[in-house]
Amino acid sequence: MNRRRYDVVTLFPEMFAALTGSGITRRAQERELYQIAFHNPRDYTSNPHRNVDDRPYGGGPGMVMMAEPLELAITQARSEQLQTLGTSGPVIYLSPQGRPLDHERVKSLSAEPSLTLLCGRYEGVDQRVLDRCVDEEISLGDFVLSGGELPAMVLLDAIIRLLPGALNDASSAEQDSFADGLLDCPHYTRPEVYHGLAVPEVLLSGNHAEIRRWRLAQSLKLTRERRPELLDARELSKEEQLMLAKLDASKENA
Question: Which one of 68, 112, 176, 240 is the catalytic residue?
């Protein structure tokens, strides 16, 4: 079994109980698809108060996480990866300054045997840690959170659900939004009519070819309405081009 290992450098390892304690990520851990370990920078300090932050040079508000405790924690994480797997993976810092996360990057990271995730706090971390230890910075979007723990959990959740055996139905991941570069189509379940709203007849027809075409058309429609830039970056098939032409024609005739 190609079990993955994920090491997290964080001041708040208890937050990750939300990841390991429920849902797909809990079951994947129980199936031994991945191992997760935590490294608290406070355990790598040399001062009696276990301080991991200090005032920024040049002045300004807030505090900055010091370089040494973070680097020692990262070094320990990579050492343990080498001992257990024979290799150590990239070190990723969760940061608003990082590359925006997308599904393609999640897929590539899910193939890595190990990762070390660095969760910052306060005003950030000493730049020298990034220069010496970090391979990549990743952002969830153009906003600021209190720390890197929630982004790290989001990243891990997205990665873990792609691991072979994590989902009871492997095809579920293939049909998710962004899995093929489009937004997902609408989904329905019982009852057939809810408050006067009926399930589209095509989904009740049993005609799998027509159902596939309907779902593709709906995905194209939603993507054009909500995320048109995804279509601009996509190489459309002839079928998709025809569907979009029909959507445009129906808009003009409306």
Answer: 176
